[in-house]
Amino acid sequence: MPSPAPSDGASSQPRLFQNPLEKSADTLKTAEPMHGEPRLRHAIRDQLEFRTLALDQLVPDEHTARIVWQYVEGIDLEPLLAAVLAVAGRPGRDTTDPKILLALWLYATLDGVGSARELDRLCRDHVAYQWIAGGVSLNYHTLSDFRGDHGEFLDQLLTRSVATLVHEDLVELKRVAQDGMRVRASAGASSFRRRGTLEECLKEAQEQVETLRREIEADPAATTRRQQAARQCAARERSERVTEAIRQCDELDPQRAAAAKRAGRAPTESRASTTDPDARRMKMADGGFRPAYNAQFATATDSQVIVGVELTNSGNDGGQMLPMVEQIEARYGQAPSEMLVDGGFATHENIEAVSAPERGTVVYAPMKEEKRKRAEGKDPFAPQRGDSVAVASWRQRMGTEAAKQIYRERGATAECVNALARNRGLYSVRVRGLAKVRALLLWYALAHNLMRAASLRAAAVEKSA
Asked: What span, in angstroms and rounded, lies between the C-alpha atoms of 208 and 204?
């Protein structure tokens, strides 16, 4: 039987809780404050948990590590696989897949990681690096060797990757900007010695090699075989570096003598580093002098893709434009239509060589003497006595507003690419020798182009949609 409805519209049954809306303002104001210890949720890190997650679930689909891996999967690794000694039917431990090592260093370069030991640690501690490694154990020796021992393969990879972008009409070689930057070498200023001191160092190194050999022959069980091999290798490498430093001094002496003669002063004795004989003392951006290398990047202005990489141990950029143009021509079968360089590159010999009819590259570069000639009341863009046709044309060209507008693109491309490389840690290098440092520059170029290619392709798809 239904119960009668209440006459005042409110329920006559007792309620367990009071409706908050029925509380008056006076009741809320006179409520006593809460007392007692706060109840908090604390972190518990010793609690055992069982999670059913695959490594692939820990990395988002749009993560940079996946972009890098997708790029590596499309690379022909036959040159690297051909050098693998661990083959079916023969003893020995399986070799790490070159795809893993290639992807790890590309991602590490984008992440600003330049140390093999640091990369080894990240492969154990960081999810993205763990995902790339895919459960394969690594060590810093393997990582370090792979980074520096495949310069020729990396050079060919740069050529093929840029050629693919050119074929897809994403990159043009019409206008290319070149710029150099000083990179601190892995050597100390105190490692530079004169020839006499180097000969003494060589004698000591050879004596150390001989002493180690006699110790091992006298008591083979004194140290483990691995320790013996490491000590012998270190002594032998030091002897080889000192020998190379002496050879470098012999090459530098005539150059320094010629420079001193032109300057009208007595020549000074050459010095070379016992740590990295290829390094040279150079003037850095802060005005100081340190052991360094001169890194050169050439960039397509339409896409900011690096199309050429070079490394020298020359302290200035004079004469570096022609080798870069020749490199681009050898890589892609065509020379750039225009080259944008700063005044340090614009030697008359280089301008004449790249402007030759068979190459036809137009040079855009400021003149170093422009301010001085303006101060003297002279026209800095007028042809001078002794100028060749190419040099006279360059002077007149740089006096036009159109040429100045074109030259402004250099700062937004070449200098921008160098700044990105700096942000990724290219202030100093941890490897030694021209070959290995150049390989390191190729890693930076490939990593940069990888991300630029992804952006260019995405923009092309959006444009066509």
From this structure: 6
